Amino acid sequence: MACEIISYVYFCVAEDRSGFKIGVSSNPIRRTLQLAERIDLANSIQFSCQRSDAFRIEKSIHFLFEKYRLIRDKVDGYTEWFSFSAFDEIRKFVVHNQDKFKWIAHGSIMPSAEIADIRYISEDLTLADRRTFNLLLANAWDNIQDPVLHHIRLHELRSSNPNNDRPRESIRRLMKVVVSFDVVEDGIKREVMSQLLGPCKLDHNPQGLAYYSFPEPIRNAIESSSVFARLRRDLLCQFRSKYALSLYEMVQKRVNLSFKTSDDFGVEDFRQKLGVEKGKYLIYRDLNSRVIKPAVLEVNRISDVECSIDPILDGRKTVGLRLSWQKKDTAEAVKNSKALPKQDKAAPPSAPALRVVGTETGAGETPKTGKRLRALNTRECEQLKKTFAGYDIYHFYDEFQEWLERTGGTLPDKPPAAFTAWMREYYKITGPRQG
Question: Which domain holds residue 338?
């Protein structure tokens, strides 16, 4: 007889304890992320069973505890909500009748590996590389657990650059990266090491596809974590620092935990989690001023969460770091969700809303005027990187191209000089990033 497919009957608890949902899914975490209500994953539970039994079991529980059913607005799954006051009673009932319901196993929806921060142990990734990886994840999310080649149009991984050189380079670097993260399996804590990205195939056609895959350890870690689905695509393209993007990922893995609001790390462990290059910022004072403080400032200003990082001292020596987090209130989160807020002297005072690639309007859809900047050559790129050290030159050059198309500006004879003048006038960036 063919092996039956496993499904889950889940009890998803609303974060505000207004009720809990009893439903069926092959992937409860993914299902909870589709709901309008915020779910407390740490206190939600699931029961595995054969798919042929799952819906029969669900309907039986619904029928037996009908008196606790809640009346909700007609949204997805609105008939499956029950009063939270009955949570313990229903849970105990189904556990006690395990043999009748044919459970295979039951436990928390949130697996022990939910907080599995990735440590980058080879190759340095740029901000563009990290954005690319998150966009690849978002594109493949619906079947992320399958050992298949996912595909995405190359132009969805770039801005308005006329060719696909940058996403190709990013994908090549991602394939070289080796990462590690901790998991708990059978009660034993283990370090898992893997390539970040598996085999890929890239079309040469400018409008062609990128085919890509994830190694099994990465697939397993991603499938068991809800963080990647919570990363907002509109925010991914607003971060100007790769350290800030890494910090945002770390905070999003924790912000929905109801039982803790801080985590402690060793200094070197925290450096690896942020992706700080080997040999850079070895003194804590430099790490704090160049990496930690700017990253915290950027995350707090751009995203819908707030965080702080404080040193853990042994006498006068910093021996660790404490990351604390909280959600912003709704009004502040909405205010910051549209575009970048004003910056301090170390960053641009204002910025336009940055276009998100590969969303509703499609990639690269700015008013086409035929004014296409030529690509910068290597010498020009290196000079601009020195002039504006600490900024993603490729990203801003793409923004310059979009600005020309949006405003119908004159195509410059000398793009590097025009770009430099634009950075100083439009973004008020006059030199290297400070601090």
Answer: 232-349
Q: Note the pTM of the prediction, 2 decimals.
A: 0.44
Residue 52 lies in a domain: yes
Is the four-CA dihedral 415, 421, 426, 430 of positive or negative sign? positive
pLDDT tens-place string over residues 133-170 = 877 877 776 677 788 899 888 877 765 556 778 888 88
Q: Are 94 and 105 in contact, with CB atoms under 8 Å apart? A: no
Is 367:406 a contact under the CB 8 Å cutoff? yes
3-state DSSP assignment of residue 132: helix
What one-character-per-residue DSSP string does 358-389 give? TSTT-TT-S---S--PPPPPHHHHHHHHHHTT
In this predicted structure, the answer to whether residue 21 has a pLDDT above a threshold of 50 is: yes
Give, rounded to a whole angstrom, the gap between the first and last alpha carbons of the chain. Answer: 65
Crossing angle of the two packed helices 393-407 and 378-387, in degrees rounded to 10: 100
* The two three-digit tokens of residue 413, written as one number: 């004879």
Residues 123 and 223 in one domain: yes
Query: In one letter, which amino acid is 182?
Result: D
Residues 6+ apart with CB under 8 A from 359: 233, 234
Q: Are residue 243 and residue 169 in the same domain, yes or no?
A: no
In sequence order, the 6+-apart residues with CB closer than 8 A to the CB of 274 are 243, 246, 247, 291, 295
Residue-wise burial string across 107-129, b where 16 or more C-beta atoms lie within 10 A, e elsewhere: eebbbebbbbbbbbeebebbbbb
CATH number of the domain to which 315 belongs: 1.10.10.10
5-19, 287-301, 352-366: which range is least confident on average?
352-366
Residue 186 has pLDDT above 50, yes or no: yes
Instruction: Answer whether 182's CB lies under 8 Å from 191's CB.
Output: yes
